[in-house]
Amino acid sequence: MLTVTIDPAIFSPPSEASAESVRGYVSLLLHWKGVLDGGWARVLKCRSTPAILVKCNCYPFRPWLRDLFARTRTTDYDSNTVAILADTLLARSGDLEEATGIDDILASHLRFVPDVFAGHGPLELRSESEKCALVIAIIRTASTDPSAPGHGLALGSRVGSHEITVGAEIEVIDHHRTDLGALPAAPNRFEGRAAICDTFQSLVESLSDLAIWKCARANSDLETAIKVSIFESRVARGLPVSWDTLPRFTLQPGFFESLRACGATTNDSLARSTLRSIVDTVEDLRLAATHALRTGAGANTGQRSRGPDLAWRRDVTYDHHLHYWQRGDDGSKELSCVVTHNCFDITS
C-alpha cells in the first residue's frame, strides 16, 4: 500500500484570506479524507501535529475558521462542518513515528532543495514540516523498509518538482529500527531524497514503480508496484485514470518466489521488462507477445484450462516468460509465475 504523510501546514489557516483560498483549503482536506476513506493509501501525520497547531494558535479549528469565513464572506461551506472535517482527518490519520519506528529526531544545518517550506510559518510549524520530510528521506535512503519507496509527503500547495533533496547533520535520533546502522551522525552529513505531492495523482506520479518493485518482500508489495505502473501507463497514454477503477488482477501465492528465483526482483533490466509485461497483460496490450499454454507439445493440442479459466504465456524477454490465468467470469488476470524459457509449468 502507498503511504502519504500530511504536512502539518495543511491544517493551518490559508496564507491569503480570500474566498478562493478557503475553497482550496476545504478541497484539500476533502481530497485527503477521500483517499483515507477509499483505502487508497495509508495516511499519516506527525504525532505532535495537534500540539504544534495549538502552540501556533491554529487549534481548535472552529474559532479561526469562523472568523475566516466571516472575513471572506464564504458561504459555500459551514465553518463548523469544515472544523469537523479537519478534526476527523487529524484524528483518523496514523502516526508517522509508529509507522516508521523513528520516535524523534534532532538535526541541525537542514537544507531542502527546492525549499518547499520557505513559506511555512510560524517557525514551529515549519520545523514540524521539515522533520516529516527528514524522517521520510531517512526511511527511503537508509532503511530496508519495503514501504519506503511508496511514501510521499503531501504539501498544501503545488510545487514544480516531485522530489526534494534533504540534507542535515543528525545530532540525536530516537528509534527502534534495526536497519539504520549506517546512518551518518553529526558532524557527518546525511543526504537523502523525499517524494512530495499535492494530490493523490501527483503522489503516484512522484513514485518509482521500479523502486517499489525492487524493495518488495511479498506479493502485497508487488501489487503496489504493479498498480503504480498501470496508473503511470494510463497517464502516459492520455487515458482517464483513478486508483479505484484500475483493472483487477491477482497474484498467486508463489508469484513472488518465482520472481526471486529468476532474478526479476534484483536485475534492473529484467525487473523493468517484467513490470512492462504485467501491465501489458492486465491491460490487454501487445497481444502478439502472448501464446496459449497447451496441454501438450504439439501445436494442435488444446489450451490448458481450469474450469472456465484459460492458461496463457507472455514473452518477457527471450529467456523469461510470464504465465497467467485469464478468468472466464470477468476476464481478469491471475498471475502465476515468471519462468525461464524451457519451463511450461503453471499452478492451478
Summary of the model, kept short:
With 348 residues, this protein is of the alpha/beta class. The protein has helices at residues 19-38, 49-55, 61-72, 79-92, 96-100, 123-142, 200-206, 209-214, 219-236, 255-262, 268-283; strands spanning 2-6, 41-45, 94-95, 102-113, 151-154, 163-175, 190-197, 249-251, 290-292, 305-306, 309-315, 320-326, 333-340.
Protein topology:
Layout: E1 2-6, H1 19-38, E2 41-45, H2 49-55, H3 61-72, H4 79-92, E3 94-95, H5 96-100, E4 102-113, H6 123-142, E5 151-154, E6 163-175, E7 190-197, H7 200-206, H8 209-214, H9 219-236, E8 249-251, H10 255-262, H11 268-283, E9 290-292, E10 305-306, E11 309-315, E12 320-326, E13 333-340
Parallel strand pairs: 1-2, 1-5, 2-3, 5-7, 8-13
Antiparallel strand pairs: 4-6, 6-7, 9-11, 10-11, 11-12, 12-13
Helix pairs in contact: 1-4, 3-4, 9-11
